[in-house]
Write a structure and sequence with these properties.
Blueprint: H1 2-11, H2 14-32, H3 39-48, H4 50-79, H5 83-103, H6 111-127, E1 132-139, E2 142-149, H7 156-168, H8 175-198, H9 201-212, H10 215-220, H11 227-247, H12 250-263, H13 274-285, H14 292-303, H15 305-313, H16 330-341, H17 357-380, H18 388-399, H19 401-409, H20 423-448, H21 456-475, H22 478-482, H23 491-504, E3 512-514, H24 519-522, E4 527-529, H25 531-536, H26 539-548, E5 553-557, H27 577-586, E6 587-598, E7 601-611, E8 621-622, E9 626-628, E10 653-660, E11 670-676, E12 679-685, E13 689-696, E14 703-713, E15 718-729, E16 735-736, E17 744-747, E18 753-754, E19 763-765, E20 768-770, E21 773-777, E22 780-785, E23 792-799, E24 809-815, E25 818-822, E26 831-837, E27 843-850, E28 858-867
Parallel strand pairs: 3-4, 3-5
Antiparallel strand pairs: 1-2, 5-7, 6-7, 8-10, 9-10, 10-13, 11-12, 11-14, 14-15, 16-28, 17-22, 18-21, 19-20, 21-28, 22-27, 23-26, 23-28, 24-25, 24-27
Helix pairs in contact: 2-14, 2-15, 3-15, 4-12, 5-8, 5-9, 5-21, 6-7, 8-9, 8-11, 9-20, 9-21, 11-12, 12-14, 13-18, 17-18, 17-20, 20-21
């Protein structure tokens, strides 16, 4: 009670009250701003204020460290454990770092988030603004940011990049090495922090080791994510807190406030970590009437301003997309995440997720142990250590208010791969809790092996053996690390990685990209604009842009352009296929690279040549064919061309109306070709007007007939239009195969579809659409009882364009168990027409066989017809 009175008395000191009022007013006013009509002010401050504040914070931190460096050195010496522990942690840290650096590829793993940090860093470096440069041109040593926005990401990581840019370059690929360098520092800082607070080197060793051995941690330290910085700064904050707690001077509290304030710049939710630090610091801050308390709180408040501005500006912003509302799913996400983090191995022994199941169960055991130990010592203990574990438990619970905020305010479902990085906020604490029973059991085992005081050699030997077991277990998943199992299904990350690989093959020169997420390129110091901005340029400005970059302007059709469910319904995604389709229709481009990303989309890269000088939608419009029946008494003609008067036709005819509406100067070099079943019927110069293609039914083959209307630009040797019209001619009893019932069918996946693909979409083979046929999945075998009634079977086969990753397939047509015709192995983008004589055949079988994996083998048998 006396202690509490003393604290309250010191709290009532005038300077302390003023300092606390100032410290409270700053976040209050910042958060209030948007709610009282000053959102634009907050927006401006969020862009302009962080960088100068960071610079002042850095200078103040360096100055304080210089003044206190001798004290820090002496204090560190006082907390260092025995040499064997220090040597052991150094050796294992080196081994883990070498493993991560050699076995895990350095690449993005949360593409858009990481690119935002890069883009903000570029904007800080060139324009001294802390917003995201969404679109911009790099010219003459400057960045002309033509579209910018406030970044909902915190700015601390971008500021660290800024510090390195004058020395290491502005292309920022060096950041991968910087993040790797943080790994050993984070391990050692955590070791020192736990040693300092607990004086249990065995516990510190295993807490640091378990944290560093988690696959998700190692993967993130080989990326450009903010979470590694979070781990590094959390350990640093705990270590500095103990140093400050022991020394208890105004300078120490000032440097702790600076560290905590920068720690808050890792994630918006990190500000909630202040609670345990403040609560446990109060007895020291208020142990006398001094400037310690106001200094600490004012510095903490002032230098937390950047993250407070971000929180204020984006308050009420929906960080979640799709069909999902983030709020109200905390407990649901906890259960889901436990399931995701404890999934069994795949059948081939690979990790299902970048989590080790044993770690989570060790954490659960450690949590129970910590709770029991805290209660037991509080009741039965005595002396200073009586409430040690209770305080430890309280600190951890308060510290992880931020975990609640993360899972409550964004989608905390680890079933979404990119959300698995949030586990790094929890893993250091989980590792500490998991290490408690391990360290204490090892200590107990060493005690049991000796009648008296346990030999240090015995204790260290057991520690090393157990550590080797944990380390070996992680390292034996080497193949999983090599195969990048973390986020290997993140399509955007794979897309960006593939683009950068392609860029790496080219000679370095200034380039400009037209892309759906231009800030990705801006982050690497490459000029980039969005499709919409490029489309809104005049033809003259487009040409100037092409000339400025000496023809090195590229269009990329990426993930955002594909209208398919390639994303989780809870993910924040936005598809713009129409935008891309319109852009491609209006612009002159030459395709130069297609990169398969998943089974249903490519990254397509094209050289941009400016706006087309014609309207593609006006080139040709083709109507559905119409059949005109002749009178019975009329005489048949062998041929009817387009100049024939339809009213005078004396045989059944098929007419197809088409319009040629483009009238620009470009048509001078165009030609029109009309083919029937791959035979040229008409070849003539393109001419404005309305026309009819009239064909005698006698010129048609039984079954399906294919008319193609092709417009070529002869000067550029380029096909402008290729439209296909299919017509079923039932003369002579021809019948589509889909009108018969099959006798038996089996396939590798899904169910047989009639007149649609295996996914229920319009059948599309090599870019052409078909209305009739079978959609199946190889390996497949479909048998019909044709009863010897037919003489001919014809079909076109190919892999449907909806799925692109097949290793290849071949098709066989069998009659009564004998192969009558077959295709070579084919992949996407090809179509094969098979014509088979089947006189006397009773059982007709359509068979498809994958060359390798059956994945993506969506086989279409289109225009399949039986002819008597």
């Amino acid at each position: 009670m006396n202690s509490l009175k003393k604290l309250l008395k010191n709290l009532a000191h005038g300077g302390t009250i003023v300092g606390l009022i100032v410290a409270i007013i700053i976040p209050f006013l910042i958060y209030l701003g948007p709610n009282v009509g000053h959102k634009s002010t907050i927006q401006m401050l969020d862009l302009k204020l962080p960088m100068p504040l960071f610079l002042v914070q850095l200078a103040a931190g360096i100055a304080l460290l210089v003044m206190l460096h001798k004290d820090l050195r002496d204090w560190l010496k006082s907390i260092l454990p025995a040499k064997p522990y220090c040597i052991a942690i150094l050796v294992f840290t080196a081994a883990i770092t070498i493993f991560a650096g050699t076995q895990i590829e350095a690449r993005h793993r949360v593409q858009s988030d990481e690119s935002i940090f890069l883009s903000v860093a570029q904007n800080m470096f060139y324009n001294q603004e802390s917003g995201t440069c969404n679109q911009g041109y790099f010219e003459n040593g400057s960045l002309n940011c033509i579209a910018k926005s406030n970044s909902f990401k915190t700015k601390g990581l971008a500021f660290l990049y800024l510090i390195g840019m004058p020395f290491l370059g502005t292309d920022l690929h060096w950041i991968f090495n910087m993040e790797l360098a943080m790994l050993p520092l984070a391990i050692l800082l955590m070791f020192l922090a736990v040693v300092a607070w607990t004086r249990q080197p065995l516990l510190a060793f295993f807490a640091s080791l378990l944290m560093a051995l988690q696959p998700t941690v190692l993967f993130q330290f080989r990326a450009m994510s903010v979470e590694p910085l979070y781990i590094f700064l959390s350990a640093l904050a705990l270590l500095v807190f103990k140093w400050t707690y022991d020394r208890n001077t105004i300078k120490h509290w000032a440097i702790l406030a600076l560290v905590l304030a920068f720690f808050a710049q890792t994630r918006q939710e990190t500000v909630f970590c202040f609670a345990p630090f403040i609560l446990f610091a109060l007895p020291k801050l208020l142990d006398s009437k001094s400037a310690k308390c106001p200094t600490f709180f004012v510095i903490l408040s002032v230098f937390s301003t950047p993250v407070l501005l971000t929180i204020s500006y984006f308050q009420g912003f929906g960080f979640q997309g799709g069909e999902f509302s983030a709020h109200g799913h905390f407990l649901e996400d906890l259960v889901k995440n436990w399931q995701e983090m404890t999934l069994p191995l795949k059948e081939n022994g690979e990790l299902t997720n970048p989590f080790l199941t044993y770690f989570n169960y060790l954490f659960a055991v450690g949590g129970i142990y910590l709770l029991c130990r805290a209660v037991w010592d509080s009741v039965k203990g005595s002396g200073e250590s009586r409430y040690f574990y209770l305080k430890m438990l309280a600190f951890l619970l308060l510290y992880h208010i931020q975990t609640y905020m993360i899972l409550e305010n964004v989608s905390g479902d680890f079933g979404i791969q990119i959300n698995q990085r949030y586990s790094l906020v929890m893993i250091p604490s989980m590792a500490f809790v998991a290490a408690l029973p391990i360290a204490h059991l090892i200590q107990a085992l060493a005690n049991s092996l000796s009648d008296k005081k346990p030999s240090p050699v015995t204790l260290i030997a057991i520690m090393i053996l157990v550590a080797l077991g944990f380390t070996g277990w992680t390292f034996h998943y080497k193949a999983d690390f090599n195969n990048n199992i973390m986020y290997n299904r993140n399509h955007l990350t794979v897309e960006e990685h593939s683009i950068l690989e392609w860029l790496g093959e080219l000679p370095k020169k200034p380039r400009m990209f037209i892309y759906g997420r231009p800030w990705h390129f801006v982050g690497y110091g490459i000029s980039s604009i969005h499709y919409d901005r490029a489309r809104n340029l005049s033809s003259e400005d487009m040409q100037k842009l092409i000339d400025r970059y000496q023809g090195e302007v590229y269009y990329i059709r990426g993930l955002d352009c594909w209208d398919s469910k390639t994303y989780h319904k809870k993910a924040v995604e936005h598809r713009i296929p129409t935008t891309c389709d319109v852009f491609e229709r209006e612009m002159e481009m030459d395709g130069i690279k297609n990169i398969l990303i998943t089974n249903n989309y490519w990254v397509q890269i094209a050289k941009f040549n400016g706006r087309k000088n014609y309207n593609t939608q006006k080139i040709i419009d083709v109507q559905e064919p119409k059949l005109t029946e002749a009178q019975p008494a009329e005489k048949n003609l062998n041929e009817v061309d387009e100049n024939t008067d339809v009213n005078k036709v004396v045989t059944d005819t098929l007419s197809i109306s088409y319009s040629l509406k483009e009238s620009s100067e470009a048509i001078a070099n165009w030609e029109l070709i009309i083919t029937l079943n791959n035979k040229i019927m008409i070849r003539k110069p393109y001419q404005l007007g309305e026309f009819q293609q009239v064909t005698s039914t006698e010129a048609l083959q039984p079954g399906f007939n294919q008319f193609r209307f092709i417009v070529n630009d002869t000067s550029k040797q380029k096909k402008l239009v290729d439209k296909v019209i299919n017509y079923m001619n039932k003369e002579g009893g021809a019948i589509p195969l889909t009108e018969l019932n099959y006798e038996s069918h089996q396939q590798g996946w899904g169910n047989l579809h009639f007149n649609t693909s295996i996914e229920g979409k319009k059948m599309t083979v090599d870019g052409q659409n078909y209305d009739s046929g079978l959609g199946t999945h190889s390996p497949s075998q479909t048998t019909y009882d044709v009863g010897g009634k037919y003489s001919l079977f014809r079909t076109t086969v190919g892999l449907d364009d909806e799925s692109l990753c097949s290793d290849g397939v071949f098709v066989e047509i069998e009659g009564d168990g004998k192969v009558l015709n077959s295709t070579p192995v084919f992949t996407n983008g090809t179509a094969h027409t098979l014509t088979v004589r089947i006189e006397g055949v009773q059982k007709l079988t359509l068979k498809s066989t994958p060359k390798g994996s059956k994945d993506c083998t969506h086989v279409d048998f289109v225009n399949a017809v039986l002819i008597p």
